[in-house]
Amino acid sequence: MTTVEFFIQCEQPDGSWEQASSITTDVDFAAERLIRRREMQPEFTFRLAERTTTVVVRPLPDCLDCRHWKCDGNGPCGALLSVSAVSERRCTCAGPAAASSAP
Hints:
The protein is an alpha+beta fold. 14% of the residues lie in helices and 28% in strands. It contains 1 helix and 5 strands. The protein has a 3-stranded antiparallel sheet. Strand 4 and strand 5 form a beta hairpin. It is elongated. The chain starts with a strand and ends in a 13-residue tail after the last strand.
């Protein structure tokens, strides 16, 4: 899903630009707002800005420890999750056997 939003920015003394209005998805409304802002405050420099946001939704694995996508019930996978000087921690999900020791 992609969202396009429009808003006014005002130039700052250091040359950077700051958001100077609320956002809208209607570009014509934003353009009218820009005209009014320039008329009301001619001593400032304003411009119209566009922000595009894309949201990506993806499924998470069944087992967040070892990242198996399917826990099939065939026994503990045994993926090596962490190692210290005195112990190691392995995954106990019911997914297929781990192909490598890295999670």
